[in-house]
Amino acid sequence: MTVLKTSMRNFFAHKGRMALSAVAVLLSVAFVCGTLVFTDTMNTTFDKLFQATASDVTVSAQGSSDTGQTTSRTGKPPVMPASVVSTVRGARGVRSAEGTVFSTSVTVIDAKKDKLSPSSGAPTIVGSWNGNDARTMEITTGKAPKGPDQVMVDKDTAAKHHLKLGDDIGMISVVGTHHARVSGIAAFKVTNPGAAIFYLDTRTAQQTLIGRTGVYTDVDVTAAKGVTDDQLKKNVTAALGHGYKVRTAKEVADANQKSVESFLNVMKYAMLGFAGIAFLVGIFLIINTFSMLVAQRTREIGLMRAIGSSRKQVNRSVLIEALLLGVIGSLLGVGAGVGIAVGLMKLMSGMGMELSTDDLTIAWTTPALGLLLGVVVTVLAAYLPARRAGKVSPMAALRDSGAPGDARAGAVRAVLGLVLTGAGGWSLYAAAEADKARSGSGLLGVGVLLTLVGFVVIGPLLAGGVVRVLGAIILRVFGPVGRMAERNALRNPRRTGATGAALMIGLALVACLSVVGSSMVASATDQLDKTVGADFIIQGDQEFTFVKPQMVRQIKATPGLERVTEYKLLDATLSTPDGKVSKNETINAADATYAKDLRTKTVAGDLADAYRPDSMSVFEGFAKEHGIKLGSTVTVGFKDGRAARLTVRAITSDDVVIDKGAMYASIATAAKYVPASRMPLDQLVFATAKDGQQAAAYASLKRTLHADPALTVRDQTDYKKALKDQIGQLLNMIYGLLALAIIVAVLGVVNTLALSVVERTREIGLMRAIGLSRRQMRRMIRLESVVIAVFGALLGLGLGMGWGVTAQQLLALQGLNVLDIPWPTIIAVFIGSAFVGLFAALIPAFRAGRMNILNAIATD
């Protein structure tokens, strides 16, 4: 009980000094809890939507997507005859059955030809209005669509795009463009996360999406009273046979939820990973805080030991203080985490994904996990300082002589750090020299971990040398004040090393990702310059947005073009000469002019020959695996057609980036074996202008594609910029998440300086008494902070660049063989670190300058 009282008294006596450590715990716990609440809320939102919109049993055409999206490369969803509906109605236990048709491979535009698709990447759905939709939606304005000239829009889409009754809507499908006017607006009875939905009557939907009536994509089946969904599924399956996909409401909802969860899990674990980095950085802050508090209370600990307190009691006293810090920081962090989740929901709403606070989900495991993590991390971080406090003998503590084993522990630490760093460096070297990416990536991971831990352990040893060099370069110009700042930073190398290491972790990751991202852009740009011979690339803005036939015709009619190349992807099964069957392969079918548009390397033959009748190419790795040579025959079983025996006329190199691992054939060859009705739409279209007409052809193509805003034309400059922007956006998002760790590291610098000022109160008073001005005192604190921040930046940037260079060597095995160091970014981060040091010193320097000289000198 006495230990608890002592711990409580010490904790609240030093609550100001504990505050920044508590903030570090709060931020880390808040990020974890906010991530969990946010992803759980998204899961709840989608759960409610999928459960509400699914009929008791759904019958779909064979080959349809489990999630309902149109993934067919023909641009049309798989369909079944209308006779299926009457067959289902005759099954036992069926109360009602209604056919429906819908597609997600449609571009919807307004009267100005602006696209009405969601900005969040959610699907655009055009379908028929039926009874199942009426059950889950409520018409708030106007009426349901009747006739070919009417369309109904969901309320959220109408609000986002300012649609009202009577507005013209255009729906561009593979069949053509259908125009209708808004007849009604309907609202979901549950939250719609962001899909844009447009309803036509059944006959119009069939004509617009499929091109003919008498077919459906799905049949919505409702069970009679007392019939379970599982029993209804058995009855419907028995009536139809096994040529259709029959699923219960739960199975449909689970399939949809599974597809959403894969995306949410990536987001969740990525964010939790960054929270883990923040926790790791926070450990250094907590260790420093308790180390300094213990050092400042050395005499008090000696008195406690002298009057009978055991080592365990002293140790326990410090750990109880850490427990209190962890509990308070974690409890506040759990509350802040809910706020972060709500903020993320608002942010996502701004990006087009609607999430309602009515669905806010806080599972009991979330606060429990946050509290557990915060407390465990804090107590573990405080264990070493607590153990060190318990080892101090009473007489040594009364003399302020420190722990007896510090010198020996420092030597052991230095040796261990050197061993770990050396082992990590060897792993990075081995990774860079690896022949295969898989083995190299494992060595890279080991190297990153070992060098990181090694630098943390060896930090105090490095601090002594690096700070002296920085002092000679940066601090000496400030005269005596600079020299005092240097000595202060060197006074406790362990503390300086730990503070710098906290900043090092975040900056190492920033430097590594900057090198990798910059090298990827440079490599891809280099490949574009070397291999792409076409002037323009036309493609859709999403995975299953294809170039529709009517647009291909318009592109070919665009003035100023010398040639236009179509490019399709066909699923196939390959039977190779070694007797093996390779399933789920893709044949890249293109016009013969593609050999000019892509100057890819070959190890045998000429790629142009692969576009001859009944010919193809294979890539180098596939050829070696299956013993294929020029002239070998491969049986290609096209998924949507019949089998073809094609002769291998070329073998392409694996040392490429664009179309790596592609197998080519001509569209004319594919058309012999795949019916026109099943031939995939163009994935891409390449165009080349006549000499001297590039600018005019580019402008003409832009005007042509205005008719379908889902398509984009890019010249090579545009394509490079788009690639750079995509990687830049990803890196900026990662940098934003790493900012949490850097903020915690800055708090560590602030806390170290603040506690250092308290620790040196008497010394500061004496310096002021002999003539040091307030301004000089503040400058000394700021310079000390700057040198610590720059020390951490040097370690972090150097370590991160080493990681990035090694990672680039592995990427070179995948064809990304250009190393590009983004020096502007590296230099900006380095300079920014100095400003971080200045910012972190503001409050400690201000407090040091305000000290009363006499009171400071009188401090024990």
From TrEMBL:
<feature type="transmembrane region" description="Helical">
    <location>
        <begin position="783"/>
        <end position="805"/>
    </location>
</feature>
<feature type="transmembrane region" description="Helical">
    <location>
        <begin position="449"/>
        <end position="478"/>
    </location>
</feature>
<dbReference type="GO" id="GO:0005886">
    <property type="term" value="C:plasma membrane"/>
</dbReference>
<comment type="similarity">
    <text>Belongs to the ABC-4 integral membrane protein family.</text>
</comment>
<feature type="transmembrane region" description="Helical">
    <location>
        <begin position="407"/>
        <end position="429"/>
    </location>
</feature>
<feature type="compositionally biased region" description="Polar residues">
    <location>
        <begin position="60"/>
        <end position="74"/>
    </location>
</feature>
<keyword id="KW-1003">Cell membrane</keyword>
<keyword id="KW-0812">Transmembrane</keyword>
<feature type="transmembrane region" description="Helical">
    <location>
        <begin position="733"/>
        <end position="758"/>
    </location>
</feature>
<dbReference type="InterPro" id="IPR003838">
    <property type="entry name" value="ABC3_permease_C"/>
</dbReference>
<feature type="transmembrane region" description="Helical">
    <location>
        <begin position="362"/>
        <end position="386"/>
    </location>
</feature>
<protein>
    <recommendedName>
        <fullName>ABC transporter permease</fullName>
    </recommendedName>
</protein>
<feature type="transmembrane region" description="Helical">
    <location>
        <begin position="318"/>
        <end position="342"/>
    </location>
</feature>
<dbReference type="Pfam" id="PF12704">
    <property type="entry name" value="MacB_PCD"/>
</dbReference>
<feature type="transmembrane region" description="Helical">
    <location>
        <begin position="499"/>
        <end position="522"/>
    </location>
</feature>
<dbReference type="GO" id="GO:0022857">
    <property type="term" value="F:transmembrane transporter activity"/>
</dbReference>
<feature type="domain" description="ABC3 transporter permease C-terminal">
    <location>
        <begin position="274"/>
        <end position="394"/>
    </location>
</feature>
<feature type="transmembrane region" description="Helical">
    <location>
        <begin position="269"/>
        <end position="295"/>
    </location>
</feature>
<dbReference type="Pfam" id="PF02687">
    <property type="entry name" value="FtsX"/>
</dbReference>
<feature type="domain" description="MacB-like periplasmic core">
    <location>
        <begin position="19"/>
        <end position="238"/>
    </location>
</feature>
<keyword id="KW-0472">Membrane</keyword>
<feature type="transmembrane region" description="Helical">
    <location>
        <begin position="825"/>
        <end position="846"/>
    </location>
</feature>
<feature type="region of interest" description="Disordered">
    <location>
        <begin position="60"/>
        <end position="80"/>
    </location>
</feature>
<dbReference type="InterPro" id="IPR025857">
    <property type="entry name" value="MacB_PCD"/>
</dbReference>
<feature type="domain" description="MacB-like periplasmic core">
    <location>
        <begin position="499"/>
        <end position="698"/>
    </location>
</feature>
<feature type="domain" description="ABC3 transporter permease C-terminal">
    <location>
        <begin position="737"/>
        <end position="853"/>
    </location>
</feature>
<keyword id="KW-1133">Transmembrane helix</keyword>
<dbReference type="InterPro" id="IPR050250">
    <property type="entry name" value="Macrolide_Exporter_MacB"/>
</dbReference>
